[in-house]
Specification:
By secondary structure, this protein is α/β, with parallel strands linked by helices. The protein has 20 helices and 18 strands. The structure holds pyridoxal-5'-phosphate. The site of pyridoxal-5'-phosphate (PLP) has 15 residues, from helix 8 and strand 11.
């Protein structure tokens, strides 16, 4: 039985002549297709020998060939889906961690393009013609914008916390409140990072209440750092207490210890006008004389993945000289993008030109206008789906201000034939894929995170469902 079936297997050359494969030859090249056909046929051979191929498939060479073509096409679809590609974020989650967090604005992209395609002064001092210091320009800009003494940039905020604690606390104790032994998405856990830095955790207080006196009582000759971690993605409410950063900073100073604040999101603009009261700004911490702090580049800052460490020169220089720095440093592309991002904050264009801050500040009325236009157009275009305008909320995401709700207008998409899950899958299968959210069995689209120039593609995706 299997011998006959094996003889039925078409050869690669026979398959390559099939009508159904001609477009794949054009799209991917004969060699790639040949490799994938070989892969599929090998699998098929094993299945036949194992007796797991149904008799219908082995009815004739034509049927077998069809099945092979189907499997090869599937291989191409899978690799196409896995390829890193642009998607349209219609979820309204501004810093969607799964969708790459912060999108970049035109200035950042221009800087990236300029540096990526050629040589740069990454470690070259144009004034002296000698070897320069990597990141010098960006660090000077951070110092100027934020008024701190020194800055250094690493791969992400997790790296910043690891490097800072390793430099300042290896072999000693880090005092941290039990209310701040947090986990940020993607398994970043404060206790684990402290341990990996080579320091010991000295937990103080309770989950909901930690007093300044708890910190003070824990200080001993092994204490190296007092740590404050911003509880980015969760909140303790009710019967709670914790010292202010001024108090912690003062306590640490009185005991000649460094105080390190892990700010997480790194907000440069005050979000209180948006009704967001629990995202501390970097300026507040520096004003409270926090001697060293760290935050992410691709959260509320709206830049590339990076970890920014700021603070007193003596501490930052020790951190910079840590041999681990070499393993955690960033490349020229990150410097280019981050420098342009920070530059926009300095020249006052960030609010509108940075996609993250722009999306945060877009008002419900602005979204309402765009959404109405979009729906009117859809309804005039006799779409098979029914679009309605409803009130809703956008979410910041990225583990920032979890309780903040930004009022927005949403498009609820309904269909007589399709379920919300089917519409969602249809949009996701489009090119470019559209990612939407489902709430209470309704598919929802939030234009807050959709660029104006993406509306055409969104429209095409909806029409195609
Ligand atoms: C997000 C976050 C981190 C990790 O930041 P990455 O840049 O993603 O590494 C660390 N600490 C806090 C408090 C955070 O919110």
């Amino acid at each position: 039985m299997s011998e006959t079936a094996l003889r039925l297997l078409p050869s690669i050359d026979q398959l390559l002549r099939l009508e159904g494969l001609q477009s794949l030859i054009v799209a991917s090249g004969r060699d790639t297709l040949r490799d994938r056909l070989r892969h599929v046929i090998d699998h098929f051979r094993k299945e036949i020998l194992a007796g797991s191929v149904s008799p219908e498939l082995m009815a004739s060479q034509e049927v077998l060939a069809q099945e092979i073509v189907r499997r090869v096409e599937e291989l191409f679809t899978v690799s196409k889906r896995m390829k890193l590609q642009r998607v349209i974020n219609a979820t309204g989650v501004i810093l969607h961690t799964n969708l790459g967090r912060a999108p970049l604005g035109p200035a950042a992209i221009a800087a990236l393009e300029e540096v990526a395609g050629g040589y740069s002064n990454l470690e070259f001092d144009l004034a002296t013609g000698k070897r320069g210091h990597r990141g010098a320009g960006l660090e000077a800009l951070l110092v100027e914008l934020l008024g701190c003494e020194a800055a250094v940039v690493v791969n992400n905020c997790a790296a910043a916390v690891l490097l800072t604690l390793n430099t300042l606390a290896e072999g000693g104790e880090v005092i941290v409140s039990r209310g701040e032994l947090i986990e940020i998405g993607g398994s970043f856990r404060i206790p684990d990072v402290i341990e990996k830095s080579g320091a010991c955790i000295r937990e103080v207080g309770t989950t909901n209440r930690t007093r300044l006196s708890d910190y003070e009582a824990a200080i001993n000759e092994n204490t190296r750092v007092i740590l404050r971690a911003h509880p980015s993605n969760y909140r303790i409410v009710g019967f709670t207490e914790k010292p202010s950063i001024e108090e912690l900073s003062g306590l640490a100073r009185a005991h000649s210890l460094p105080f390190f604040e892990d700010l997480g999101s790194g907000c440069l603009l005050d979000l209180q006008p948006l009704g967001i009261h629990d995202e501390p700004t970097v300026a507040q911490s520096l004003k409270a004389r926090v001697p060293v702090l760290a935050f992410s580049g691709d959260k509320l800052l709206g830049g590339p993945q990076a970890g920014i460490i700021l603070g007193e020169k003596s501490l930052v220089e020790r951190i910079r000289k840590n041999p681990l720095m070499r393993a955690l440093r960033v490349d020229k592309l990150t410097y280019a993008v981050l420098e342009a991002t920070i530059e926009a904050y300095r020249n006052g264009t960030a609010m509108l030109a940075n996609p993250v801050t722009a999306a945060l500040h877009a008002t419900r009325d602005e979204i309402d206008d765009r959404t109405r236009h979009f729906i009117d157009r859809a309804n005039a275009g006799h779409l098979d789906l029914k679009l309605t305008l409803i009130d809703g909320d956008s979410v910041i995401g990225g583990g920032c201000a979890p309780e903040a709700r930004i009022p927005t207008k949403l498009i609820a998409v309904a269909s007589d034939r399709l379920s919300a899950a089917e519409i969602e899958a249809g949009l996701r299968a489009h090119q470019p894929p559209v990612i939407a959210r489902i709430e209470e069995d309704r598919l929802l689209i939030d234009l807050r995170t959709v660029k104006t120039e993406e509306e055409e593609e969104l429209w095409a995706a909806l029409s195609g469902v």
